[in-house]
Amino acid sequence: MAETIFSKIIRKEIPANVVHEDEHCLAFHDVSPQAPTHVLVIPKKPIVNVEDIAPEDAELVGHLWLTIQKVARQLGLAEDGYRVVVNCGKNGGQSVDHLHYHILGGRALSWPPG
Ligand code: AMP
């Protein structure tokens, strides 16, 4: 997998506003927030996107979802709700080729997306 800005964040080569870290994943505030709270959850394992998830990643993917839940609660989003977005590939609007889950909250979000 090609080097990305998120690999550099994982290795602490560039700074990020980290809200959660464990041996499998990292969560940090998006540099260009699209909602009052906008956090990214990423695996430390280099996975490009949803299409690159393998059967042996099932436990890791479960861990990422439980981390999303934990971070959303930690940031006070759970009561009013929030959105989790995963962009995949060109038509999905993915701009960083390292799997990431957007957690968006703090306001009512419209639907459908553009
Ligand atoms: P996507 O368009 O789904 O690939 O999302 C990539 C996200 O990464 C965007 O929301 C960017 O604002 C965010 N992003 C890019 N570089 C950084 C960075 N250095 N720190 C935090 N977020 C970043």
Give the biggest beta sheet: 5 strands, antiparallel
Overall radius of gyration: 14 Å
The number of helical elements comes to: 3
User: How do the helices and strands follow one another from N- to C-terminus?
Assistant: HEEEHEHE
- Round the mean pLDDT to the nearest integer and report it: 97
**Overall SS class:** alpha+beta
| End-to-end distance | 29 Å
* Major beta sheet, strand line-up: 1-2-3-5-4
Q: Ions, cofactors, ligands: which are bound?
A: adenosine monophosphate
Q: CATH superfamily, please?
A: HIT-like
Any overview of this molecule?
The chain is of the alpha+beta class and 114 residues long. The chain has one domain: HIT-like (HIT family, subunit A). The protein contains 3 helices and 5 strands. The chain has helices at residues 5-10, 58-74, 89-92, and strands spanning 18-21, 25-29, 37-43, 82-85, 101-105. It has a 5-stranded antiparallel sheet with strand order 1-2-3-5-4, covered by helices on one side. A hairpin with a 7-residue loop joins strand 2 (25-29) and strand 3 (37-43). The longest helix has 17 residues, at 58-74. The chain is globular, with a radius of gyration of 14 Å. The mean pLDDT is 97. The structure holds adenosine monophosphate (AMP).
